Amino acid sequence: MRIKFLTIIFCFSAFALFSQSFKGTNNDGVNKYEKKQYDDAIGLFKKSSELDSKSPIPDFNLGAGYYKTKNYKESIESFEKAIGKSNDEGLKSKAWYNIGNAYLAEGKYREAIEAYKNSLKLSPEDSDAKYNLTYALNKLKKKQEEEQKQNQNQNKDQNKDQDKNQNQNKDQNKNQNQNQNQNQNQNQNKDQNKDQNQNRDNNRDNQNDQNKGNNNQQPNGQREKPQMSKEDAEKILNALKDKEKDLRKENGNKERVNNSYRIDW
């Protein structure tokens, strides 16, 4: 499809050039432009503008030269100067059209659309302006759709990264909990081992005390004698008393025998 927005519109035939020097310089610039010698044409258009600073024609043609050299910013500024100096609606319409072309070349579709609208306000029947306006609207719509799709993809990537980070955080928390449980179990095991060792030491001390007590109660390995009951003790005590009485009787008889013994010498 042929894109018409690259077409540059000139106005030379529509304007009478009163000064021969001004006319000659401007037309020399047009000749250079037609030969695609754009840098030389720009130089002649600048000189023409110096010869007649009030004329919009040199600025208009200068904007065309800058457009061909892809200096779009300077091209737009030159066309805007021509619009500011001119009262001719036809020239202004063509200048707005070319401004739209420059914005379109830069990919600034919103600005291009406004420029084409301004051109159509002055020349509603301009088919090129209508065509390029439709083209710019389609480009803007496509750009917005691409940006929206790109934003959605970025959001998806961000959500994916967030999910990934959340999963990593979960894994880290899980590992931390596992480490805490391990440390807690180790500490519990240490406490249990400590308690077991303390119980062993206590059992050892108790056993040593028992052995020591047994050694005191049963010297030389002798067995402990069985304890007698109270009744048995009384029986033994009574038996001893009876035996003591008998011995006293025996002793008493002996004493009396002895006391009756007398030495005659």
Please write out the topology.
Blueprint: H1 20-34, H2 38-51, H3 56-68, H4 72-85, H5 89-105, H6 109-122, H7 127-217, H8 230-259
Helix pairs in contact: 1-2, 2-3, 3-4, 4-5, 5-6, 6-7
Task: Write a structural description.
This protein is mainly alpha-helical and 265 residues long. It has a domain of 141 residues: Tetratricopeptide repeat domain (Serine Threonine Protein Phosphatase 5, Tetratricopeptide repeat), CATH 1.25.40. It has 8 helices and no strands. Helix 1 packs antiparallel against helix 2, helix 2 packs antiparallel against helix 3 and helix 6 packs antiparallel against helix 7. The longest helix is centred in the middle third of the chain and has 91 residues. The relative contact order is 0.05. The N terminus and C terminus are likely disordered.
Average pLDDT level: 78
- The whole-angstrom Rg is 64 Å
Question: If classified by CATH, what would the architecture of the domain at 4-144 be?
Answer: Alpha Horseshoe
Q: List how many beta strands DSSP finds.
A: 0
Beta fraction: under 5%
What's the N-to-C terminus distance? 186 Å
CATH first level of the domain at 4-144: Mainly Alpha
**What characterizes the major β-sheet?**
none
Low-confidence stretches: 1-18, 217-225, 252-265
